[in-house]
Amino acid sequence: MAKKVSTKKASKKKLWGGRFKVATDKLVEELNASISFDSRLYAHDIRGSIAHAAVLKKAGVLTEAERKKIVSGLNKVEREIGAGTVALTSDLEDIHMAVESRLTELIGPLGGKLHTGRSRNDQVALDIRLYLKDEIYQVVGLLHELRCTLVEVAEENIDTVMPGYTHLQRAQPILMAHHLLAYFEMFGRDVDRLLDCLERVDIMPLGSGALAGSPYNLDRKLAAKLLGFSAITENSLDGVGSRDFTLEFLSVASIIMANVSRLAEELILWSSQEFGFIELSDAFTTGSSIMPQKKNPDIAELARGKTGRVYGNLVALLTTMKALPLAYNKDMQEDKEPLFDSIDTVKGILKVFSPMLRSMRVNTDAMERAAARGFLNATDAADYLVERGLPFREAHGVTGRIVAWCIEKNRTLEEMETKEWQSFSPLFKSDVKKAISISRSLNARKVHGGTARSTVSARLKKIKAGLRGAK
Question: Of residues 230, 288, 423, 439, which has the active-site annotation?
Answer without folding.
Answer: 288
